[in-house]
Structures are given as structure tokens and as C-alpha cells.
Amino acid sequence: MGTARVVFDRWDGRYAERMANVRSSAVRDLFAAASRPDIISFSGGMPAVDHVPAEAAAMAAHDAIMHERECALQYGSSEGRPEIRSIITELMAENGIRLSPDDIVVTAGAQQALDLLAKTFLDPGDVIITEGPTYVGALQAFSAYEPDIRCIPMDDDGMRIDQLEAELRKLGPRGAKFIYTIPNFQNPAGVTLSAERRRRLLELAREYDILVIEDDPYGRLRFEGGHVKPLRALDDEVIYLGTFSKIFAPGLRLGWMVAPKPIRAKVLLAKQAADLCGSAFAQVTAERYFMGTRWRRVLQGLSRTYAERRDAMLEALDEHFPAEARWTHPEGGFFVWVEFPSFLDTGQLLAEAVEHGVTFVPGDGFFPDGRSGRNCMRLAFCYAQPESISEGIRRLAEVIEDRLELYRAFIAAGAIPAPEVA
Amino acid sequence: MGTARVVFDRWDGRYAERMANVRSSAVRDLFAAASRPDIISFSGGMPAVDHVPAEAAAMAAHDAIMHERECALQYGSSEGRPEIRSIITELMAENGIRLSPDDIVVTAGAQQALDLLAKTFLDPGDVIITEGPTYVGALQAFSAYEPDIRCIPMDDDGMRIDQLEAELRKLGPRGAKFIYTIPNFQNPAGVTLSAERRRRLLELAREYDILVIEDDPYGRLRFEGGHVKPLRALDDEVIYLGTFSKIFAPGLRLGWMVAPKPIRAKVLLAKQAADLCGSAFAQVTAERYFMGTRWRRVLQGLSRTYAERRDAMLEALDEHFPAEARWTHPEGGFFVWVEFPSFLDTGQLLAEAVEHGVTFVPGDGFFPDGRSGRNCMRLAFCYAQPESISEGIRRLAEVIEDRLELYRAFIAAGAIPAPEVA
Prior knowledge:
Order of helices and strands of chain A: HEHHEHEHEEEHEHEHEEHHHEEHEEEH
Helix content of chain A: 40-55%
Oligomer: homodimer
CATH superfamily of the largest domain in chain A: Type I PLP-dependent aspartate aminotransferase-like (Major domain)
Shape of chain A: globular
Largest interface: A-B, 91 and 91 residues
Number of strands of chain A: 15
Structural class of chain A: alpha/beta
CATH architecture of the largest domain in chain A: 3-Layer(aba) Sandwich
Strand content of chain A: 5-15%
Number of domains of chain A: 2
Strand order of the largest sheet of chain A: 2-10-9-8-7-3-4
CATH topology of the largest domain in chain A: Aspartate Aminotransferase, domain 2
CATH class of the largest domain in chain A: Alpha Beta
């Protein structure tokens, strides 16, 4: 990990005020540690790119340049090539969302879409609503535009709509710029917003006239349970974010945004200012991969792999984790969210866990206040092999057990109160 | 082209204030028109990607996935891969700038670097200094952060340093956040900042304690005259922006920023928020291309091609353009800047020019006020073949001549005053 050294900065005081709000992501800081070969990583949400058929992808990239050099190597349009937007409409149609290619803007991963939406909508102090905990990258993207972020807690059915309604009642009509939600296999909580709550969320958004941003990176990675219709399929004013990172490869940095026309026009201006245009090379490569590969079969295999890894993690948690811990049971995606009694600060366990050869992400990074979620952790099951997952959870349990022993002794001695059972 | 239709926008009034400052780029709006096969385009600064050796580039892309799939398809580090940063240090060393790979951040083209620097430094109302005219994309990137942009005019030796000094004296120490300059073959003016003025600019920047951003996309495309040392070679606090767009291909969206360590740290946070990381796929592909190709020879061929096109344009201008026009004589790069008497508004010529099968960029887009430069145009000689260039300039001269005839008649009749001769 390393200790933070104070570096003299002769430009201190000259940065924009927004930079005071932009924190480094704990997830990213962990990537360095996680790359040590002896470490079992539950930290990064890194897809299993070893499942991408190498020859098919390599030939797609090769042919992109050999056969479409004038396009693949040149500047492209800001909205992205019609060809890839057409493929995206097919993907979306399978998901119950009927679109024209014109409805779509291709972005540098869904992360760029988050940044562009924040840039387009947020003045300092504007209220936005997210789940709590929520995606670290969204917090980073939004925070740079200095909003007032209100977090709505979740249960096993996703965002607590009663609490959303209470918040909206306080804020009033148009009282927030948008509601940001990850309805499927939420990052980091792993839970899925129920169909009934989706309908209710949209009713409330209409009633209070507030935009909804639906971020759906994991929707195609369901291992069990029935498909739940995306918000965008129920309401065409919803802004929908998709990505090729989980159905092809994050290394291409390709994602997309579906949005109503006037919003798309603003976002395109913001995108021109941000990078002129996306990578035509990546777009042509992805087009050729999706046209020339049995990618559905690849995705099925990938889902099975992730399902095995989730099973390995849930089994290992059952076997090794202490009775005081509770965790979610995701039906898809990449993540399990673990909650410990409030006296346990997972951030204080991290260095020791790395020494024991295992990493996770402490929970406080998933809240904008940096205080909530300290007794929680996110475990990514997507990347490690099942046997490594079992071993990693065993190691992590040891580290946790050491801490808990101490607390149990204190509680037994009456030195601290026993935690309430939820 | 088309006429702007007023579309009802039910989200009007809910966008961020900054969006009022973000204008669409005239250059980008022209791309659609420029793609008509009968049109000779002098509008976009599009590199001649048909000179990139297709098989070598295609194999680089193929092998990136076949041999480095786990890296090329995966998320990467925010600062970019050490391998490509190492190649960039070699490129920079040939340019007189000694660096370690740690000094470099890889960006999505130099455009992303402009956006990230603006995001890092600019609060609304902050003063920045640019050349006038200056790069449209820089104006777009900066404007989104609502700065007060002061433009310094140029002559054949680049930015008028006497005028820069006068502006700095008015502003006082730290009175601007940064000075943005394109010292080599400036976009759009085509002029190069002299060695003497570079030294003087740096002295002034030191004296007034103001950051300098040196944007150098065309530095390696010099056709004649001696190499002038980059600002960064003279002062290691200068922020230097480079790009692979002109020495390899824009379709990969790869550029880089050299900046002092504390500034790099801030920019990296802004970059994480913007796109998590750049494309590892593009980086590995570029690494393999630069390691496995005689790219210097390719670049020499490319420079010869651009030199022929510049010659064709300058000859055609001499032959066809009216006596009232003046234009720059670039020693490299992509652009010639043409100035007409003040009564000619080039924006009013554009539709007619397109009808005649030729495009250019009206001058006002290169000024933040949208008013200056109306009697100017930018002509890009980089993309069309020499014979097309001659024909295109002939067509353009016809359109201009039609307008001038009318004005000459008015002047002869004493209805409007004769223009001053500069």
C-alpha cells in the first residue's frame, strides 16, 4: 500500500475548487497491490477477459485496419459509428428496449457517460440521488461537479422506495437533478431492484419531474431468477447506460448512452469538448467481433464461470465468516456486500489482509460522506478462480476473526455494549 | 449544413450553467458535408491515414490481443502502461526533452488533456491566455469551465510577446491560470513561435508565475527551416501535450501530457473520474507498431506528402486568390490562415462554397468571442491530393471573387471606404 507522503506542491491554492471534492478511488489504489501474484484479489471488478476468444478478437482488430483503415484509423463522429450503434440496438432489443441507432451515443465506457451527464446537468450545490452504497466511479464523476448527494439505503429488493419517496417529498418537484440507480446486481451491494419497485420509482420520478439514470453494466450476467425489465423499457425518458466492458472487454473502453434527443445534443457537445470523438479503431473492432463471433455462446460460458465463482464465494462465506457478519446473495453480476457489527472498521483490516495475501474494498468508499459503510466491505467474485476464492475467504476470515475475538472479549466483560441483532 | 430547427426541449432550464458556454464546433459540423465524395475538403485537420502501413498496423493490433490479451483487453492504469510511456520518452528525447516514463500521463488524444487541465485548474471567471485565433477544440474544452479567455494576436513569428507582456502587466502576478500556446505551425494560423520569443514567453511566465501549456501536435511535421526547441526543453515546469494522431493515427485516440508531479496527481484524479483509464488495447497496439515498424521512415514519407500538398496550396493561392487576400506560409503542420479585407464575412461564403464543391472553416470559430476573425478562413492542406487542392482553391477563389466584385464596385463608387493596406 505505501504511506502517503506529503509532497510540496508549488501550485497549491491554484487548482479549481472542484478538485477539493475529487478523491482517489480506493479501488484503483488497490490495483497495484492486487497485481502481486501471491495476492488473491476480491477488490477490482475486473472481467474474466481470458474467456474472450483470442483469435476471433485478434482477427476482428486485424481486419478493422486491413479492410477499413480509412475509418478505423481516422477521427470519427462524436456520436459513434452508425454500424456499432446498430449492433447496440440489437443488444438492447433483446433486453426489451426498442431503439433506433440515432437514440444512442457511444462513449468511452459507461464511465465517460457518467462524467458527461454530470457536466451537462450539475451546477455546484445541485441535489442528486443515488443508492447508498453506490458505484465509486459514479461518486468520482459526479463529485467533480460539486453536487449535494443524497443516498437512499437498500434492502434485498434494491433501493428502498419508501425512503426515496420521503426524500423526494422533502425536496419537492424538480428538487433533484437526477436519480442514479444500478438496478441489476448493484455495485457494490449485489442486490436487484424488484419489478414492483421499478414501476414505483418511475411513478415518483414522473410525479416529481426528475430524470432517472439507469446504469446497467451487469444486466446480461444473470445466473438465476427471472429477467426484470429495465427502467428504460418502461419509460422512454430514462437515460440508460450500457457497456461492452462486461460482454466483450473493458480494454476497448466502449460504452453507450441512450437518452432523449435534446439531452443527447447537449451530451454530444460535452463529449466533443472532452475528447473530440471516441476511438473508431475500437468501434470497428467491436463491430467485427460482434458480427463474426458467436458472442452469445461466449457470454453464456462467461456467465457460468461467474456463477461458479459466486457459488464458491457464498459457500466459503458460509463456512468461514463469523456469525456476526451478514452478506447479500446476488443473482448475477460481480459483487457481494458484507456488513459487520458497527464496531468493526474494515479500512483498518486492509493492510493486514494484504499481508495475509487477500484484498477487498472497504465500504466507506462507496458513500459520498466517506464515513458511512465503515463496517462493510465489497467482495468481487468475478476475477479469482473458485479454489482461490475459497482460500481467499479463509484468509480474510482469519484476519476478521482476530479483530472480533478482541471485541467479543470486551463485550463479554461488559466494556462495550453488545450489538443489536438486525 | 442544414438549417437549425428549434426543437422543444422539456429539460430546458435544467442544464448546468456551463452548457451555455459550450458551442458546437464549426469544424465538426462540417464533417458531414465534407464526406460527400464530390467535395474537396479544406476543413478538417484529418491526417493522411492511407500512409499508415496497413499490414504492420493490423498485425500490431492482432498481436496485441493474441500475445497480451490479459493486458490489452483488461482495465489499465490511469496513467497508462509503462511500455507506451517509455516509447513516449524516446520520442520526446529526439525532440530535446529528457524525461522518465513517470513524468507522463497517457490521455485520449491531446483533447482529453485539454479537458482535464481545464477541469483541474479553472473556476468560473478565471483568466486564461491563448493565441487569437486558437484551436477550436481548446476553446471548447476550456469554455465548459467558464473562464475569461484573453487572446493575444500573432504575426509571422507567432504570439506577439509585446502584447502578451502588456496583458500580463494588466493582470498582475498569478493574474491568469495559464498561457495556452501551440508554438509549432499553429492551428489555425500556421505560424511558428520564434526561438527568441519562446525564451521571452518563459521569462514572462516565470516573472508573473503563470503556468504554460505547450500543445505540440505538429512538431514532427516540419517541411523546411530549422527545428525550434520546445518550451518544455527550456523549462521543466511547462506542461507539454503530445499526440499519436499525427505520427500514427487519430483513430486510436492516444495522446500524452508531461507535467510536474503535483499537477499530474490532480490530473490523474480528474482522469479517473472522466473514464477510469485509457484504452489498454490502443496502447498495446501502438507499442507494437512503434517497436515493430520503421515508423520514422513512414513519418518522413508523410512529411513529404504534406509538404507537396502545402506547396500545391500556396501555388494555387498565388495563382487564384485575389490581391486583397493575405495568407500565412507554414513551414510544417496542416494549415494556412487567410485574411481578407474586413468587409468580407467568410461565414456567409460557406454555403456557396459547399455548392461549388469545396469547404473551409470560417475564422470566427477560432476566437472565443465568436466575432473576431470573420474576415478570415482556415484552409487545411493535409487531406486532399495536390491536384484536388489546386482545383479546390480555384473553386473557392471563384466564390470569393463574386463577393469581391460587388465590394470593389461599391468602393469605386465611394459607397464604402477603401480598406487600409496592412
